[in-house]
Structures are given as C-alpha cells and as structure tokens.
Amino acid sequence: MNLAADPRPDWTTWPLLICVLGNFRVLQAGQPVALRGGKVEALLCHLALHHADGVPRANLLDLLWPTSNTALAGEALYSRIRSVHSRLSAAIGGRAPVVHVDGCYQLNVRAGVGVDAACFDALAMAGECKAQAGHEADAVRLFEHAIQFYYGDLCVQTDLYAIVERERMRARYLGVLSYLSTHAYTAGDHVTCLTYAQRLLDHDPCREDAHRLVMRCYVRRGERAQALRQYQVCADILRLAFSATPEPETMALFERVRRDPGSV
Questions:
Q1: pLDDT greater than 90 at residue 11
Q2: Domain of 72?
Q3: In 18, 151, 181, 228, which residue has its Cα 20 to 30 A from 25's Cα atom?
Q4: Please, are residues 241 and 207 in contact by the beta-carbon 8 Å criterion?
Q5: Residue 169 dihedral angles phi and psi, to the nearest 5°
Q6: Band of the pLDDT at 2, cuts 50, 70, 90?
Q7: Burial readout 217-232 (b: 16 or more C-beta within 10 A, e: otherwise)
Q8: Within a domain: residue 46?
C-alpha cells in the first residue's frame, strides 16, 4: 500500500467526467472546465445523480424553474443544454454530452461522459464481491481505487432521493475504510491502518470501532499514552454528541491499555 503516492485517480482516462462527490467539478481529460451559471451546474448535478436512467423533462423543469410557466422553463432548459453542448462536446469528439431518450434527458455515457459517484460505486461493489469471496488482495486493490474518487459526500441535495443517495454512498465509503484499516492492522501495517482509521473518524467521529483500532495501533507502536488519549477523545466526542458514554468493549480496551498494554 503506497499512501505516499498521489492519491488522485487517473482522471485523464475519462474524456469528460462530471464530479459530484465533494465539490462539483467538470474535468476534461483531467483538467477542470469552467462552466457559467448555477442552473447549468444544477442540471449536470441532477443528471449525474440519475446517470443510469436519466431524468424526465418535466422533472427537470420543476426542479430548476419551479415558479416559471412551462413554456418559459422549457426555453430556459433548452438554452442551458445548448450551452453544455457548446462548452463540452469537443471533449467527446463533437457528440452531445446530454441526450434526450424516451422523454428523459441523460448524460451521454456511451460517448465517454463519466460520473465520479458511479466510478466509486462500481469499484466499491466489485471490492465487496471480492471480499465476500475471500479474495482479500483483490478487494483491497479495488477499495483503494474506489476511495480515490471519494473527495467528499455527495454535493447534490435537491430532493429526498439525493439525500438517501448521499447517505448510502457515505455509509459505503465508511465501510470501505473500515475494511482497509482492519486489513492493514491484521497485516501488521500500523501506519496504513492509522491513516485509514483516522480518515474514517474524520467522516464519522463517533465510530467506536475506529477509535478502538486507533488505540490498538498506538499500543503496537509503543505509544501507550497516545492510546489512552484516543480513548479520552472518543469519550469526549460521545458525551458532546449524544450525552453518552463509550461502549463496554471500548472501556474494557482502555483498562487493558492502562493496566496491561502487553495484552493488547
């Protein structure tokens, strides 16, 4: 595992990539493309979220121009789509980045338009299949590639579906980090384990399993005091967030670190 290497995936493999994990971005062969207008961004975000099936025209009109009459909203939509074509079609050989099929608008994935969330999902799912089959090395490789696409939680929050998708992908991302950190710990790679476990805690500070893994890593590295501090961090976070105390398993680990660190 080479976490010192550039953590970014090879964006240049995609002639056009719509990024909705973290901040919204459009990349052309790995280079950012400037787009003007919040409506254009909202249009591409929504199409990226529904990249598999597309979005009915009526839904886009309601989403982007909820208070406008249908005729004016339709003209505005057509104008934004023309703007997208003008700005981005050269990246995919002059083909349309957005197509209209069976009453729905969708990104032209067949022409080479990609979505970072779809890349993350596909790699994470493949990794989960490998992990379930017991192929750990393949699972780790796929998971390491998957998290390179996860720059942050889904930035699309326009409706209930988007919120559900944001939480689903976030949970999958945390599960991937948990697998990678546990695998590294089992392999005796405590530096990598700490890197992944701390990244997990950055996204979910209340994950006690990650706190316990960090504590164990510190003990294995001979940093007993730091392991004890990690317990206190965990206890403080739970108290502030939920007025709760750590789980019995976490408290038991703290006592082992305090009284007999050699047993950890």
A1: no
A2: 11-115
A3: 181
A4: no
A5: -70, -35
A6: very low
A7: bbbeeebbeebbebbe
A8: yes
